Amino acid sequence: MATFRRSATLAGALIAALVVLAGCSKSGSDAPNTGTATGKPIIIGLDQDSTGPGASYSNISGKTIRLAIQDINDKGGVLGSPLQLVVGNDESDPTRSPAVVQKLVGEGAKLVLMQTGSAATAQAKPILAQLGIPAIAPTSVTQTLVDPPNNEFIYMLANATGDWAKVYCGAFEKANIKKIGVLTDDSPTMAAVDKALFDAMPCVQIAASEKGATAASDLSAQVARIKDANVDAVMVTSLGGAFEVLAQNTLASQLAAKPRFSLASIGNQPDSWKLANPGALNGLVFMGSINSQNPRTQELTKFLKDKNGADYEITAYDAQAWDTVHIVKLAIEKAGGADDPKKLNEAIQSITGYQASFGQASFTLSYSATKHLGTDGLCGLSLIEFGADNKPKGPWATYQPLC
């Protein structure tokens, strides 16, 4: 029981840290200024879940979005005009996202960045289509976000869950894993992600599926039921944060001999690593997107370390946020400005072969009128394994997706 009490304490500490971070983002002290750009500001809307269940990843992306905009403004802006942010927070609540988007557009946003949960973004699609305002979801991975209906104005960067399913199936086949247990949180976003992911994974049997509250303080009963199912491996699907830490601590204690897999969340939340019990993440394999051999990743890593400190750990959330802002910049340049949303939308669709800051070195992003998911192949994904120090140690030796 001591382990679980400690996990609950650490979970509380993580939640408190996230609240502090969210509070800082609200203060406006990190809002980009006009830099050297002198033209009329181009307003970009940001729906950032800074206090809800998606805060553990949205705050990382939100900070890098601001840094990217500031860097662009410091270099003269876009067509001589600075980018300016207006910010809302739907807390990943699908019932709130349409109103937040309307508010941002009412404040002059020419384009909206949906840095929130997938379920919330899905509910914003109809209002974006109605308003005719382009939107990009920097870190979303749910394919249905860019599928009809109401998809004319929304775009994604990251490989969707269908690609994840292909990679996991390749991994499970290579590792001779036929039966898995799933431990997930109760957020609407994960419900949507799980359905999309597991519907595309007939390669494996889900012998046990357990759910816990996002703010759970004890997952021992759920893990015990997974253990009773005698599975070959366990997969955790969550938004990350306190839930993921608790899940991995519990699994390391009760099912230490079983292979463990996770989504991208845990690998992209460095603050969570130090809150896990010593060695609790050892051997955990997660879906990663950061490849140190990618020269754009190297450049972004140097930039972020210069801004955030030498010990800063770059994440896919950083890289996808950075690329999103630069795709916006490129689209505005192609459209000759941002005043005509139709031209801006067509400009996004004309972007091809954009060299991403995440994925393997040859990985690119391309869009068209019928392709609103930017990824050009599986090269944006890599399976990464944690080491005994609770830090990612590198690609999982057993299996990697082909580029």
TrEMBL record:
Domain Leucine-binding protein: 41-364
Signal peptide: 1-22
Annotated keywords: Amino-acid transport, Signal, Transport
PROSITE patterns: PROKAR_LIPOPROTEIN (PS51257)
UniProt family annotation: Belongs to the leucine-binding protein family.
SUPFAM superfamilies per record: Periplasmic binding protein-like I (SSF53822)
Lineage per the UniProt record: Bacteria, Bacillati, Actinomycetota, Actinomycetes, Micromonosporales
Domain of life: Bacteria
An annotated GO BP: amino acid transport
Protein name per Swiss-Prot or TrEMBL: Ethanolamine utilization protein EutJ
Matches recorded under InterPro entries: BCAA_transport, Leu-bd, Leu_Ile_Val-bd, Peripla_BP_I
Transmembrane segments: none
